[in-house]
Amino acid sequence: MQIEKLQNILEALLISAEKPLSIDKLLGFFQTEDLVNRNDVKQALALIQETFEARGFELIETASGFRFQTKSEYKQWVTQHWDEKPARYSRALLETLALIVYRQPITRAEIEDIRGVAVSSNIIKTLQERDWIRVVGHKEVPGRPALLGTTRQFLDYFNLKSLDEMPSLSEIQDIDKLYPELDLGPLQNLTEAAEEQEREEDEDEHIEDKPMDIFDIDEIEINESSIDSLNAKIKSEADQESNDT
Question: What is the full DSSP assignment across 80-148?
Answer without folding.
Answer: GG-SSPPP---HHHHHHHHHHHHH-SB-HHHHHHHHSSPPPHHHHHHHHHTTSEEEEEE-SSTT-PEEE
